[in-house]
Amino acid sequence: MRAGIDRLLHTANGLVSLAAFFTASGPVAAAGAGVAGLLSWRAILATPPAAPDLAAELARDMQAELDMRGVPADQHGLIADMIAATLPEPSTLIDAGLDPEHVLAQMETRL
User: Fold this and answer.
1) Torsion-angle region of 97 (φ positive above 0: left; ψ -120 to 50: alpha; else: beta)
2) pLDDT (tens digit, 0 to 9) for every residue of the chain, 111 residues total?
3) Would you list the DSSP string of the chain?
4) I need a surface site. Which of 8, 15, 48, 99 has the fewest CB within 10 A?
5) All structural domains of the chain with their residue ranges
């Protein structure tokens, strides 16, 4: 979450710095705005996307849950296949109002 907020703030700062660079009243103001903007854009490009971290976290959580419930290791892939086969369409999520019970019921119908 923090990475997303940082990326948003750096983007805003980069855009404001760009505007300040082109409207600067002198070379020092232009240089200051240019440096601030470049630092923000560099930070944006260096920020890793959140999705791989989330995917890895979900995979670890799923592994721990399956191990805790005593699911044999050779069946772990089957669980992932069932989840992939029943993933709801975005329209289903919207129609369900993101209600987890309704989404799960829709997923169960696809098994």
Assistant:
1) left
2) 566 788 888 888 888 888 888 888 888 888 888 888 888 888 888 876 665 666 678 778 888 888 888 888 888 788 778 877 887 777 877 887 878 888 888 888 877
3) -HHHHHHHHHHHHHHHHHHHHHH-SSHHHHHHHHHHHHHHHHHHHHSPPHHHHHHHHHHHHHHHHHHHTT--GGGHHHHHHHHHHHPPPHHHHHHTTT-HHHHHHHHHHT-
4) 48
5) 2-47, 51-109
